[in-house]
Design a protein that fits this description.
The chain is mostly helical. It contains 14 helices and 6 strands.
Length: 343
Amino acid sequence: MTTNQKTTGAPGLNIGRLLLEGRAFFALIAIIATFSVLSPNYFSASNFLIMSSHVAIFGLLAVGMLLVILNGGIDLSVGSTLGLSGVVAGFLMQGVEIPAMGVILYPPVWAVVVLTLALGAFVGAVNGVLIAFFRVPAFVATLGTLYVARGVALLMTNGLTYNNLGGAESFGNTGFDWLGFNRIAGVPIGVIVLALVAIAAGVMLARSAFGRWLYASGGNARAAELSGVPTRYVQVMVYVLSGVCAAVAGLVLSSQLTSAGPTAGTTYELTAIAAVVIGGAALTGGRGNVRGTMLGAFVIGFLSDGLVIIGVSAYWQTVFTGAVIVLAVLLNSLQYGGVGRRS
């Protein structure tokens, strides 16, 4: 009888596990179906591409956040790093005045991009060194960096916004808006950038030694260290990569808006964390993948844009987003055994 009961119960358990593990995918399908019924303008290729360009910002932050969470950490500074990166890019595009020489230098766009990515890597390296070598808790270290980066952005702009970042032919710095407005085969450049970053991160996690080290150190840092994994190096690198992803997101967002403000990216760190959690990653580290994180980012993006399209108040949008995050954390607890295993 015991054997028969197990056999009978197995299909139900398998279906339940399938629904639990594929919740982000099923949630995305449900969101698309619901808003397609509520609004005739929702289900169209042009609208999906527009929404995907919005998702690109969250998705880029989420890829970096996934690497940090896989390591068992958290990065609260990505939103501020995004804002600071955009401000630095705007500052460079406006021209760098050198009073001693009486000249204003206008760096080409490629130099602006390289310097901005270097800034993101530097912010991430500061986080990583504080956490890996000085043993500062990740929450505290990245919270401090959040305020420092936001403060620097405000100081650089005096609270104002850099506008008209298209550049000028005479200064040789045109092309910055290419990231935000151009398309390849009808697909926005920002979406293509997200796809390339996601593919690179997925290959790194699945095929490289660093990916194996990351999963090992996130699952059990002490055991990984005893096995020869350079855990401190891994810890620093995930924050560096998170900072670079935030810088890329800052470049894409500034290009889309053709402006850069010091408050850009406010609370985006929470959206990135939400995308990772909705995608099925464990906040305790060691479990998660890029595919799930991308689905989580699209769930949040398509839900937010859908609520806007049907005219839901911005206050209710916050409520719905918060409810989705709480539900995702609850399902993660069920999936990874955080609930109901004490007996």
